[in-house]
Amino acid sequence: MQTEAEKEAIKLAKKERDIISYARFAIILNLSLYYGIAISIWGLALRVNLLWSFLTGTVLGLIVAFTFCLATIATRPKSMEEIGDRKFFVGSWDIFAIVIGIAGLAVWMVRILFFR
Q: Burial code of 38-59, b = ≥16 C-beta within 10 A, e = fewer?
């Protein structure tokens, strides 16, 4: 028989596991959407099918998420400072997607203004 304290510990462990699973899913979804949108903007600039460019960007976002970001939340953080460092690291990959999208917008605007 389990004591009440053991039951509470099991509930807390399950809750923590669910939070970590949600964080992983959120990172994957976030990065795949950011990269999908950024590459779609490049698809507009280069006159490529938007569906294929979005799918390509989504796959690129999945590769980035699985390669670089999931390892940062796979282990248990030891302090609140470490959680902040991990958030900063994962957020830096979002910034790369935003920069790619802004560069695509610039190329698209140049193409519209000068090369009709």
A: bbbbbbbbeeeeeeebbebbbe
DSSP state of 3: -
Q: Which two three-digit tokens encode residue 33?
A: 């959407």
Looking at residue 3, its pLDDT comes to 80
Q: Tell me which of 80 and 40 has the higher pLDDT.
A: 40
User: What is the C-alpha separation between 99 and 93, in angstroms, rounded?
Assistant: 10
Quote the number of domains for the chain: 1
Q: Give the model's pLDDT for residue 36.
A: 93
Q: What is the mean pLDDT of the chain?
A: 83
Cα gap 52→39, rounded to integer Å? 9
Q: Which domain holds residue 36?
A: 4-114
pLDDT surpasses 80 at 115: yes
Using the structure block, give the residue that is written with the tokens 């510990």.
9
Instruction: For residue 75, give Cα distances in angstroms to 52, 69, 72, 83.
Output: 35, 12, 7, 11
DSSP state of 47: T
Amino acid letter, residue 45? A
